[in-house]
Amino acid sequence: MITDIERRCSSVLILVNVLLEQVAELSQTDCTDGIVTTHQRLLLEKAGLTGPPGAGKSTFIEAFGKFLTDSGHKVAVLAVDPSSSTTGGSLLGDKTRMPELSRDMNAYIRPSPTSGTLGGVNRRTNEAIVLCEGAGYDVILVETVGVGQSEFVVADMVDMFVLLVPPAGGDELQALKKGIVEVADLVVVNKADGDLLPAARRIQAEYTSALKFVRPRSVVWKPRVIRVSSLTKEGIPKAWDRMTGFRNKTWNSGELDMKRRRQHRVWMWNHIQDSMIKLFRQHPSVQRLIDRMEDRVMRGEITPGAAADALLREFQKSPKTSNPEQIQQDEL
Ligand SMILES: Nc1nc2c(ncn2[C@@H]2O[C@H](COP(=O)(O)OP(=O)(O)OP(=O)(O)O)[C@@H](O)[C@H]2O)c(=O)[nH]1
């Protein structure tokens, strides 16, 4: 269920986005160029953070975020929760998970959007990043649960990707490692304290060797593995040091700027894809045919390809499409 506040926040977000687009159109500049200067963009840190449930993401973000706000930064924590679009639940972004940071005037924690398609949820997260940049947050952390495809979507929204892991092995971790390690710029082994310290050292060595087999994505940065304790705060400054190291190197080489430009292109196409699907589904003649075609495909009377072609022909036949403004309303 969407609460009234969430509904209003979404409306405000969409309204601000529309305004940003109009300002960009008027000045014929890139939307983000209009609100964030080059100097600000150089100092901006946008990182994705993922890890399996129980790795200590909330505890880490709380400790890391406090360290940053104490050093004069403004920190925004956003969340992408793939389960929220299907179950209506929200694993992430809950303010009670980070009680101290959520009370901090220099931190903003945005709960995960809990409605809409995954595309819509991601789109709103991406728009929230742009708004946080404009509002002067210089560190933006986008948190995801490390179990789905969302990491790869988030990797297209942020400058760097951080994987947080607990000092434990097992099959679950092996599976997790394979996909995500390929997009990780920094692996943080959490809970490196007390009795868990020897295990944390072992996991650090394991990830360090796993990273050797990953195809490098940058010519100036080699992914690192560090140990931290979010409880004792040991290693927290080092995590920040590594993140700024990544940003400075990739910025100076031009890689970061190029990556951000490419991401804008990816998101343009993501938006087009989302909108096209909605237009398609809302097209009156397509709507009349969809149920029949789905039925025939399921009964094996027609191949999926032939059914898709029939629907696409119907869509192309009449240029009449639904009102895009109506689509935005429906998204809410
Ligand atoms: N010893 C130790 N325990 C930690 C550390 N960080 C987190 N924990 C503990 O690990 C457990 C899980 O921490 P959370 O921060 O809730 O983990 P999470 O990844 O956010 O978990 P989800 O909310 O389920 O996604 C809690 O009992 C924490 O107290 C750490 O650095 N050292």
From TrEMBL:
Originating gene: LOC118420226
The family this protein is said to belong to: Belongs to the SIMIBI class G3E GTPase family. ArgK/MeaB subfamily.
Entry's Gene Ontology cellular component terms: cytoplasm
Domain of life: Eukaryota
Species this chain originates from: Branchiostoma floridae (Florida lancelet)
InterPro entries linked: AAA+_ATPase, GTPase_ArgK, P-loop_NTPase
Protein name: Methylmalonic aciduria type A homolog, mitochondrial-like
Keywords noted in UniProt: GTP-binding, Hydrolase, Nucleotide-binding
Catalytic function, reaction form: GTP + H2O = GDP + phosphate + H(+)
Subunit: Homodimer. Interacts with MMUT (the apoenzyme form); the interaction is GTP dependent.
Cited function: GTPase, binds and hydrolyzes GTP. Involved in intracellular vitamin B12 metabolism, mediates the transport of cobalamin (Cbl) into mitochondria for the final steps of adenosylcobalamin (AdoCbl) synthesis. Functions as a G-protein chaperone that assists AdoCbl cofactor delivery from MMAB to the methylmalonyl-CoA mutase (MMUT). Plays a dual role as both a protectase and a reactivase for MMUT. Protects MMUT from progressive inactivation by oxidation by decreasing the rate of the formation of the oxidized inactive cofactor hydroxocobalamin (OH2Cbl).
GO MF annotation terms: GTP binding; GTPase activity
All residue ranges annotated as the AAA+ ATPase domain in the record: 43-217
